[in-house]
Amino acid sequence: MSCGCKTSGDSAHNCGTKSANGCESVDTCGNSYKLSVFDWLSNINNPTSSKCDMVEVRFKNDRKCFYKNINSLPLHIGSIVTVESSPGHDVGVVSLTGELVKVQMKKKNASEEGALKIYRLANQKDVETWQEARAREEQTKVQARKIAQHLRLDMKITDVEFQGDNGKVTFYYTAENRVDFRQLIKEFAGAFRTKIDMKQIGFRQEAAKIGGIGSCGRELCCSTWLTDFRSVNTNAARYQQLSINPQKLAGQCGKLKCCLNYELDSYLDALHHFPSTSTTLDTEKGKAFCIKIDVFKKKMWFAYMDHSAAWYDLDIADVKAMIALNKKGEKARPLEDLKAVAPEVFAKNTDLIQENSVDRFEGKNRNKNRGRKPDNRKPDNRTNAESRSGSENKPRKPKGEQKPKQQNARPEGKPAREPGTPNPNKKKFHKKGPPKRDTNA
Q1: In three state form, how does the secondary structure of 125-185 look?
Q2: 71 Cβ partners below 8 Å, 6+ apart?
Q3: CA gap 339, 316 in Å, rounded
Q4: What share of the chain in percent tops pLDDT 70?
Q5: S-S: 126 plus which of 105, 122, 389, 400, CB 3.0-4.6 Å?
């Protein structure tokens, strides 16, 4: 949301660079502000001679107001102006000019009657007072939280905004229940010596003021472009076949995500052609109930009440035909005759990248040759041709002339050993005794 240009906002200004620390002139930079509107009519000449004298002025965070340029000042996006306020005056930055302001006023149901005025372009004294007031906001917020905690009030002070002339301070807070401010305002007036204004906001508005990153990896919609907060309930998740998991469905504000409403109309149009999920089919093999549905493939999964392990996916046209037969008092054909998808029919997924294997990074053939005994055979210096020719020229003995193997052969002249006599060639093993104890140790 911030740029590194370090220049004041201009209609022809383009913030092409980004920095982690943000723009030092974020208050006057037209392209580094939340909920900024792109003026696509800036390069188009007005076909009529009448000129729109309404101007959109922004203040801290997402607060915007429409003012009337009664003095016909040469204003453009990024101009710092001094505007009418109650009491005193306020300082803001022009965020939109021209004919596009009428479109925004129509969208937000704002009328030109009773619109406040723009006094002048802010001078040096106005800007210095405004910057001093903005510098006090963080310290004031910390001190205000300490006072509210000391009074044991069930509330949270989210943000603090000083008026441009330092004549009023507005405290934005969130609370579940009603809060008694009688003692709190007395404490604030004595500590800050200015007019106190308390404004309660919702949790969604709090997230819009603070900002953050959503679970999708993008900046929060409420802090970038979303201006109206529609109610979101759990039926939106049920229509979209989402699991009712509060941790996944809740946003940074702790409420249901606003993006659940984005695709809800498409799902409602698709579900309009589906039979009810509580439909029970009466078939020749028994009654079947609906397990789940696929909205965009227009299919419904059914299973028998007696055997719910096997699921059968049917087109909604077939389901409607079976319902029509049941209404006539006839039983429909078995689910297997239409289209059967048993659990064992599903194709087995092949793990190509072996992401389910624990030892996928270990070399399988790394220790294949480890521990093998060295080859002590004499090297054969003959060439391949000689070895091949030698093996071919060597005569082979026929199978009938092969010498039979002799078992228990002994050399001539030695008598056979009688049974029960010790074998003189057998090795003698002596049992080792316990090791001697070292007395010097």
Answers
A1: HHHHHHHHHHHCHHHHHHHHHHHHHHCCCCCEEEEEEECCCCCEEEEEEECCCCCCCHHHH
A2: 118, 120
A3: 12
A4: 69
A5: 122
Look up tokens 């729109």; give the residue.
52
| pLDDT tens by residue, 106-118 | 988 888 888 899 9
Transcribe 197-219 into DSSP letters: EEEE--HHHHHHHH--B-TTSSB
DSSP-derived letter for residue 108 is T
The pairs formed by 329-338 with CB atoms below 8 angstroms and a separation of 24 or more are 331/282, 331/283, 331/284, 332/281, 332/282, 332/283, 332/284, 333/283, 333/284, 334/283, 334/284, 334/285, 335/281, 335/283, 335/285, 335/288, 335/302, 335/304, 336/285, 336/312, 338/312, 338/314
173 with 157: CB under 8 angstroms? Answer: yes
Q: Where are the beta strands (DSSP E) in 377-423?
A: none
> Structure tokens of 292?
């789940």
Q: What is the mean pLDDT of the chain?
A: 78
185-228 pLDDT, tens digit each: 999 999 999 999 999 999 999 998 888 899 899 999 988 888 88
Query: Length of the chain in residues, anyone?
Result: 441
- For residue 176, the one-letter residue type is E
Q: How far apart are CA 46 and CA 175, in angstroms?
A: 48
CA atoms within 13 A on the CB side of 32: 26
